[in-house]
Amino acid sequence: MDYNQNDYNNDSLMDGEYKVIDQNYVAKYITKVYGWMFLALTITAAVAFFTVNNPTILSALIANPFIFFGLFLGQILLVGYLSLRIHKMSVGTATFVFLVYAALTGLTFSTILLRYSGATLMSAFGTTAVTFGIMSLIGYFTKQDLTSFGRIMLMALVGVIIASIVNIFLGSSMLYWIISYVGVAVFVGLIAYDTQKIKALALLDSEEARQKGAIMGALTLYLDFINLFLMLLRIFGRRD
């Protein structure tokens, strides 16, 4: 499970002064962020499709669990490195790390997607896309400050992660379904919260900080999308 969520609101990117609010500029900035996110999703999908159709790579991932968990660990380390070191990186380096992470996710996704039927995958993806779009619009247009709501969602996310780890050993089907439904609610809420936070990043005074903020914002929305998709896959069912 890809729970590499991060609260970039506390990053040094947010330390600069804010520009005068320009709604047209904010809209263009948000469009840029979503462009990076969709590029990352495209890379993930392309790598996953290539891997599924490459018996050599796929069999290596399935036959050797150390390779799979090594890739998963690499994903976690990349997200942590990007989140903690973003203020010291160049924009180009941050972009490269983000796109490498998306490619690694495609590799691990290839084995996960084999567990589900094509109909289930399409249903989960369609539901994720529609939900993501609606919650993004809510986060963008709402006048209410979602900071407190977002903190609650992040605490709930920690609970979901802990419960998921515990259930690896318990193997409880009831806990499995609770985690799945709560996980959907958490990531639905985080989409709105993270979208609102990205609007704040658009108003940073430094151009470099805004560019790095766009990468971190794209990463955060990417993680929201991926994790919501995975939770919905759990609910929609596995292939017999």
Description of the structure:
By secondary structure, the chain is mostly helical. The chain has one domain (22-236). Helices cover 79% and strands 0% of the residues. The protein has helices at residues 23-52, 55-63, 65-85, 91-113, 118-141, 147-170, 173-201, 207-236. Helix 1 packs across helix 8 (207-236). It is globular and about 50 Å long. The two termini are 20 Å apart.
Give a short summary of the structure.
The chain is built from 8 helices and no strands. By secondary structure, it is mainly α. The protein has one domain (22-236).
Rounded mean pLDDT score: 86
Gyration radius, to the nearest Å?
A: 18 Å
Low-confidence stretches: 6-12, 14-20
- Sheet of most strands: none
User: Helicity level, as a percent range?
Assistant: over 70%
User: What fraction of residues sit in β-strands?
Assistant: under 5%
Question: How would you summarize the topology of this molecule?
Answer:
Elements: H1 23-52, H2 55-63, H3 65-85, H4 91-113, H5 118-141, H6 147-170, H7 173-201, H8 207-236
Helix pairs in contact: 1-4, 1-8, 2-3, 3-4, 4-8, 5-7, 5-8, 6-7, 7-8
Q: Tags for this entry?
A:
240 residues; mainly alpha; 8 helices; globular
